Amino acid sequence: MRAALATSAALLCAGPLAADEFFTLQGHGGPIMGIAVSDEDQIATVSFDNALGLWSGSNPVWFDGHDAAVNAVAFGPDGTLYSAGDDFTLRVWSPDGIEHAVWTGHKGKVVSLALSPDGATVASASWDGTIGLWPTDGSAPAFLTGHSGPVNDVAFTRDGTALYSASADGSIRLWDLASKSERQRVVEHGFGVNELELNEAAGWLAYGAVDGGTRVLDLGTGDTLADLTLERRPILSMATSPDGDLLAVGDGEGYIMVVETPDWRIARDFRATERGPVWALAFSQGGTNIHAGGLDPRMYSWPIAAMGEADPMATGTPGFLADADTMPNGERQFMRKCSICHTLTPGSARRAGPSLYDLFGRQAGTVEDYSYSDALNGSEIVWDEDTIDALFDIGPEHYIPGTKMPMQRITGAQDRADLVAYLRRETAPKESSQ
């Protein structure tokens, strides 16, 4: 059966996406952080590689513009897409990949988006502790303040007059949007709350927390309708099927739990990946498939009726998670600090950073297939032993202020020297290394 499903996946790569079949979407250069599905069953994926992909088949439209990992994506009713990420911005795109607006105002990464029922407002959850309310007509945003920690998720009520928010401070709050004030403290949890799923028609609110708690509240009474906790932590993703009858929950240990909401019965408990988290979940428009993202740069889609018969996400260990004791120090430093963003071979492969092939003697900001930040466009830095050492000695944020590179240092001089030696050997063109 697995071989048959794999064959059908290969066939799907040549044509439109199909319901009731296992398939993958391949093209991103980093982990999949968010997934959204349109009314026409188009799929939008966002990734650590700073990009958004819009899929109607196996060949996506790519949306490039973010300066850091993209965490969240949402469809507007007219096909407009909204994305947000680690660069603190929200971006507005037309379906052809053209960026129409960059919305700024947050002072921390943005991790979740929600569109109001009337399509007039986008809500954003940010690790700066605020909730952004962005009119889709481009007028000035408003910000809800009050959480004492990062805000992880938001959900509009059906009438669009109120908004639920979940925070690392352990609370779920209900906000009145007319007065921009907190209406109700719904939950005070001992651990941070990461995920929300709201179904007002059925009268419930589900949430997932850092401690692995997965609970469902009755909106009318506040009582717990179901406790689905399986002691796998943390809960990192949730999704509700279009008809509301299924709730999917993804956790940090690689499982997807599918719950039948009429009686809160766990119908599936699937090991989606043998290593790493399930960061993103979304149902297909018909509700027959569950789409998921994790450390593998591919999005996976399993037919719910046959989840246990299809292969999980790629089981090979990503380089940045490989056992440190199995490799020389220079390689270890590269795998832990560089490999998730950079390749050592020609072509940047949609990674978050440019290819390091033929690095030594190259002027910074000159790889043709990579879009650099303004900090590196026209840079006078030439990469050699000294400049690479300095980059990791004081950190990219100080060596090249404004770069896309994440804040990181290698404090040990010998560790830096070993990394430099490894890069000199591994990035050299073949003809010059023979």
Structure description:
The chain has helices spanning 2-12, 329-337, 385-394, 396-399, 413-426, 430-433, and strands at residues 23-25, 32-37, 43-47, 51-55, 61-64, 70-75, 81-85, 90-93, 99-103, 110-115, 121-126, 131-135, 142-144, 151-156, 162-167, 171-176, 181-188, 193-199, 204-209, 214-218, 224-227, 235-240, 246-251, 255-260, 265-271, 278-283, 289-294, 299-303. It has 434 residues and is mostly beta strands. The chain has two domains: 2-309, 7 Propeller (Methylamine Dehydrogenase, Chain H), CATH 2.130.10.10; 319-433, Cytochrome Bc1 Complex, Chain D, domain 2 (Orthogonal Bundle). The strands form seven sheets. Strands 1-28-27-26 form a four-stranded antiparallel sheet. The longest helix has 14 residues, at 413-426. Mean pLDDT is 90; it is low at 1-16.
SSE topology:
Blueprint: H1 2-12, E1 23-25, E2 32-37, E3 43-47, E4 51-55, E5 61-64, E6 70-75, E7 81-85, E8 90-93, E9 99-103, E10 110-115, E11 121-126, E12 131-135, E13 142-144, E14 151-156, E15 162-167, E16 171-176, E17 181-188, E18 193-199, E19 204-209, E20 214-218, E21 224-227, E22 235-240, E23 246-251, E24 255-260, E25 265-271, E26 278-283, E27 289-294, E28 299-303, H2 329-337, H3 385-394, H4 396-399, H5 413-426, H6 430-433
Antiparallel strand pairs: 1-28, 2-3, 3-4, 4-5, 6-7, 7-8, 8-9, 10-11, 11-12, 12-13, 14-15, 15-16, 16-17, 18-19, 19-20, 20-21, 22-23, 23-24, 24-25, 26-27, 27-28
Helix pairs in contact: 2-5, 3-5
